[in-house]
Each structure stands twice: as C-alpha cells, then as structure tokens.
Specification:
heterodimer; A: 274 residues; alpha+beta; 3-stranded antiparallel β-sheet; 3-stranded mixed β-sheet; 11 helices; 47% helix; 19% strand; B: 394 residues; alpha/beta; 4-stranded antiparallel β-sheet; 13 strands
C-alpha cells in the first residue's frame, strides 16, 4: 500500500466538490480510460473573472481523487489570473505531498485546469502538440519537455512518475533520455565566456579603478597594475600600502577577492617591485 | 475493527497447529541440524519428518524434496538448473500469465541470449493448447507453467502439458504455489519433473518453500555453499519454517475436501452476491476451471486501488490487478493477456478465501462492497454516459 499523507487520505475518503457545476462556463477534460486516469473539471467563473464554483469527476486512484478534490478547493474564490499560476507542485503541496510515483495525478489536475481555462477564454480545444514519444500512454515530446522544465526532472523514472511516459513497454526510454539531455542543456546556466587577454586587462583596470583604489586611497595608499600573465595579476603597492606590514593580506583578502569576483574566478594577485 | 481477510492468494495466516509445531524450534530446540551432537541431531530428525510430510502431500519420495526459502527461489532454481544441464538448448517455454518469479527471470534470460516463448491464453484464462504444442522444439530446455493462476484461479492442464513435454524429451516444471492445498496433487503418476510450492500460501510461515525434483532429473544447484539438502541447496536450514511446513502440508491434505466444498460454496455465494448487486461487473476467468477459493471481479468504470482503500475502511483485505496498486503503470498482465478491456481491467478486485473465512464475513463483504462501487461511480466521468446509454438502449 502507498504511503499517503493524512490530507491525501482525508480528501480521498471525503472528496470535496465531486460532481459537475451547473451552467459551467469553463470545462476541462483530460486523460483516458486506457491510461487509468481521467479528470473532468467544471468551473463557474463570474463576470469579474472570479471562480465562483469548481467541481470534478474523476476515474483514478486515491491520489487522483485527492488531487482533483484539492484542486477544486484551491480554485474556489480565486481570479482566473490567480488560477493560471497554480502548478502541479502546488496541488501536491496542498496535500502535504504525494508519493513520487503518483506525481502524475497532480500533473493531471494542472492539465485539466489549463484545459478548463482555455475553454473559458473561448479558445478551440488544443490539438495535441508535438510528437507522441510514449505510445503506451500517448504522451508527446512537448508534454515531457514541459514536465522536465517545470519540475526539474533528471531521470526517466522521474519523467514516468510525472507524466506516465515510459511506464509501459519501456521502448521510449532512450527517446526520453535524449529529451532530458536536451532540456538540461538548454536550462544549464550560461557559462561566462573566456576573456581575451586585452578584455581581461581592461576589466582588471576598471575594477581597480572602481572597486579597489578608492578604499586604498582612503588610507593613504594605492595600487598600480604592472602586468597580466595568464591569470597572474602583477601589481605594485604605492603610498601607505607600500610600507604597510599587512599589505600581503590586503592583496589576498581584498584585491584578489575583488578581482576574482568582478573579472575572473581564477585570478591570483602577486606583488612585484615597481 | 474486525479484520475480514480475503487475500489468501497473497499470503495466509499461520495455522495455530503449525505455530504450535514451530515454537519449540524458535525457543529451546535451536540446535543446528548439521551438528554432530544430539542437540542438533534431534532437530535433524524433525526436519526428516517434515520432508516425509511434504513428500506424502505431493505424492513424492522424501529424497525428491529440496527445502528452499520461497516459491520464487524454487522457480528460479528449476529454470536455471534446466538451462545449466540442458547442454546447448537455448529455448524456454512458459505462458503469458506467469508469476513475476518466472516472467521477470525469462525477461532476463532473453537479454542473455535465450529464446522464450510465452503461450497465450483465451478470454477466460485457459491455455491455448495448440499454440503450446507448436511451441515445443528440439531446442527447448524446459517448460515452466503455473498449475493455477494467482490472480484468477484458472487451472492449467498441467498433467497433459507435462506428458506432451516428456514425449519430446523436454523437462517440465510447474509453479504450484497457488494450487497446493486447493486441488489434489499426486506426482506419482505424473510427468512433472520439477514443482514449486511456498509455505506461506498454505498456512505455514513466510520464508520457506519447496522444490520437488523427480529422481533421475539432472540438477544444478542455484545456491552453492554447505552440504545441506544433499548438496542441492546450501545454507543452514530454516528449521522452524521447514518443520512448520511439514505440519501445514499434513493439514492441507486433511482440509482439501473442505476447500472444495465449504470454501467453494462461500466463494460462489460471494461472487453471486456481488454480481447481483453491482451492475456492469463480471468475473474474470469465470468460464475456466478454477481454484475453489478465488474470484476475480471487475467493476467497470472505477479504479481498483480506490476500491481497496475504501474496503480497508471496513477492515476488508483484498487485492487488485489495477495499475495504481503496484509500482507499474499498466494494469495486470494476466487480465491484459486475457483481453479484459481497460474499462474492466483497471477496476478488478481479487477476493481469495481460506478455511478460516465464514459465511458471516462473506455477507459483510456483499453488504459493504456495492455501496463503495456506487460511491466511486458517482464521480466517475465514464459512468454516467454509460448508464444513460444503457437506459436508452444504445
């Protein structure tokens, strides 16, 4: 038996808002019998764009019923704009979490909400976007990519937990791995480009001028750039700094730290005679 | 809350008589049966007695009995032994509805270069004998076929299938874990070469199983170590478990008639009561020859896990072939192999009885389960249109 939170159990045993809203003006239907999960969400949105009433009908397991119940509770009283921001993770969080293998139940809720709001706006039902990757459950590459992005997924197992894709014959696992790699690459932080030597020198000079010199000058000291060899920054201390016993610490803890922060993380500062 | 336990194909309660037999071996009689001194020798004598009890239960000789840790170990041992001793034979025949102990092993064998044929079943779970006969080739090392299905209770014609294999010089193994204690098994006149049973399915403890290996069958041990079980299964014996299993086999032989009369009647009463009260329900495998204790009922348009959890609120224990109950996302491979439609497969519930179940318990389930189905159908998006379609005759 799955480990469900008390709130999941409570919403499963006593589901809120089961049924269909009369005169609903937003209807979303997702899932299918073959997939083992289906959800129909009906909403009544008032003239001010506020959700007056929300009800669900679901075919699914305990967590699917609890997720649908939770979603309707979350939606009531919200504006359409607020409702648009609800994510599948919000639904899972509302329930105090879901077993990782059951996260697709929260995704189903989010998909039903998207479908209902699209219906409310008078948009034509969306054609299935993208190409079907998982034939067993009819999941497309676009759906998988979206789940990877929104939930920061990194493995086939996680993709299956959130979308069901790959949970059947497993023949699509390689395709899912490729999608994960592609999205992860797109999402990876952009690496700081390598600096040319001229750019590096220019940035070091700017940083010395802006971030370092004013502080040293306040104490009667100063600094001068002598040369840059690779990541070695050769400087000379001037004024009070030239005779200060703590100048070595100043160079390491202050000058080098500032240059690493603003120019390049691998820079080292060395003092050379003027 | 009183527990109504109807999941006896998953596991059974340890019979009080079995527990009583086991207790001394968990307390005072803790000697190692392999020891030279009499404190261990006494335990060895009781293991010998258990071996005789198990052999008598199966219609076998004591030296044909190997004690293992469970049914899965017995199944794995049988197949691997056949492949290790089968010279260059690279083919295994099995069925589409086997227990994972066989199914997953066969999937692994395919990766290692073996060929596996899974013989199909019909809508009632009956074996396709024509396809079975055609699947047997000179390259076949072993046939492994369950005697009775754990999910539907459907019984396969194992004796006939074993003879067909023997005629072609092919080893035959049967996983009799569900059959033992529910239908008669007599290996004396049989062509079965190897057979598996599991203690906890017939009111013995968990952690003990048996592999029967017919005299003269080439054998390669799966677990290599000490000289236990005449070198055919290393490892210190689970003495209490083995001795309890011996007693459980004695009891099972005595209760076979009750299983096929009183328990069968209870099962039939349960089945009829539920089918009469719940529309759009059906028995999976109801048309096949079945174990007397098992019924597998599908309730259309509702999901199995939800049914089980609501039953749990009344202390009723059962199983489901629904995907959501397991780690898998596909409903039961057994029901799918039988062609049970998705609308039914997801909403299947298996109720399996034992001699400890009563008529009162059956009536409680008949009383409690229909409102649960009604409640879940009340908010199923598929149920209403179907009801309307039925009402309008479309």
């Amino acid at each position: 038996m799955w480990e469900y939170t008390d709130k999941v159990k409570e919403h499963f045993l006593n589901p809120r808002n089961a049924g269909e809203v009369e005169e609903a003006n937003a209807v979303g239907e997702v899932g299918s019998m073959a997939c083992g999960d289906a959800l129909k969400l009906t909403l009544k949105v008032d003239d001010d764009g506020k959700i007056e009433d929300a009800k669900f009908q679901t075919f699914g397991c305990a967590s699917a019923i609890a997720s649908a119940s939770a979603l309707t509770e979350m939606l009531k009283g919200k504006s359409v704009q607020e409702a648009e921001k609800i994510t599948n993770q919000d639904i899972a969080d509302f329930l105090g979490g879901l077993p990782k293998e059951k996260m697709h139940c929260s995704v189903l809720g989010r998909q039903a909400l998207e479908s209902a709001l699209s219906n409310y706006r008078g948009e034509a039902p969306k054609e299935q976007e993208g190409e079907v990757v998982c034939e067993c459950f009819g999941v497309t590459d676009k759906e998988i990519e979206k789940a990877i992005r929104e939930n920061n997924l990194t493995s086939v197992e996680e993709v299956t937990n959130y979308t069901k894709a790959g949970g059947g014959c497993e023949s699509c696992h390689d395709a899912i791995r490729e999608l994960i790699a592609r999205v992860r690459e797109e999402e990876a932080p952009i690496k700081k480009p390598k600096l040319s030597n001229i750019q590096k020198i220019k940035m070091i000079e700017e940083t010395l001028e802006r971030e370092i010199r004013p502080s040293l000058q306040q104490d009667g000291g100063d600094i001068e750039l002598v040369d840059v060899i690779g990541n070695r920054v050769l400087v000379s201390s001037l004024g009070a700094c030239a005779v200060c016993k703590a100048s070595e610490l100043t160079l390491t803890h202050f000058v080098e730290a500032k240059l690493r922060e603003h120019v390049w993380p691998e820079l080292t500062v060395e003092e050379v005679p003027k | 809350m009183k527990i109504i336990y109807m999941d006896n194909n998953a596991t059974t309660r340890v019979a009080p008589e079995v527990l009583e037999t086991m207790l001394p071996f968990l307390t005072d009689l803790y000697g190692n049966p392999s020891s030279a001194y009499s404190f261990g020798g006494q335990v060895a004598r009781d293991i010998r007695k258990a071996r005789e009890q198990v052999a008598a239960f199966l219609g076998a000789s004591p030296e044909e009995i190997i004690f293992t840790s469970c049914g899965s170990e017995s199944d794995n041992t049988a197949i691997m032994s056949a492949l290790n001793t089968g010279k260059d034979r690279m083919h295994v025949v099995t069925t589409r509805v086997e227990h994972p102990a066989i199914k997953v092993l066969c999937n692994e064998l395919i990766k290692r270069g073996y060929r596996v044929t899974e013989v199909p079943v019909d809508r009632e779970g009956r074996l396709d004998m024509d396809r079975y006969k055609k699947s047997l080739t000179p390259d076949t090392a072993i046939v492994s076929m369950m005697w009775a299905n754990n999910e539907t209770g459907a019984i396969f014609p194992v004796e006939e299938a074993a003879r067909l294999a023997k005629d072609r010089g092919i080893l035959f193994h049967t996983d009799a874990v569900q059959a033992a204690g529910k239908i008669p098994i007599d290996l004396r006149q049989s062509a079965v070469d190897m057979l598996s049973i599991s203690g906890h399915k017939l009111h013995a403890a968990k952690g003990v199983g048996v592999l029967y290996v017919r005299k003269g069958t080439k054998f390669s041990p799966f677990l290599i170590g000490g000289h236990q079980e005449r070198g055919r299964r290393g490892g210190t014996e689970n003495t209490a478990g083995i001795i309890g299993l011996g007693r459980a086999c004695e009891l099972a032989a005595q209760r076979l008639e009750e299983e096929n009369t009183r328990v069968r009647k209870l099962r039939d009463r349960l089945e009829k009561g539920l089918l009469d009260r719940v529309p759009n329900s059906r028995v999976n495998g109801g048309g096949a020859e079945r174990l007397p204790n098992t019924t597998n009922i599908s309730f259309e348009f509702v999901e199995g896990e939800a049914i089980l959890l609501l039953m749990d609120e009344f202390g009723i224990c059962a199983s489901s072939g629904s995907a959501c109950t397991s780690g898998s996302l596909q409903p039961s491979h057994v029901l799918r192999a039988m062609g049970v439609p998705f609308t039914m497969a997801h909403g299947s519930v298996r109720l399996s009885l034992s001699v400890y179940n009563t008529e009162e318990e059956v009536d409680i389930v008949i009383d409690r389960l229909p409102p649960i189905i009604e409640k879940l159908r009340g908010f199923s998006p598929f149920w209403k249109p179907q009801a309307q379609a039925c009402a309008s005759g479309t």
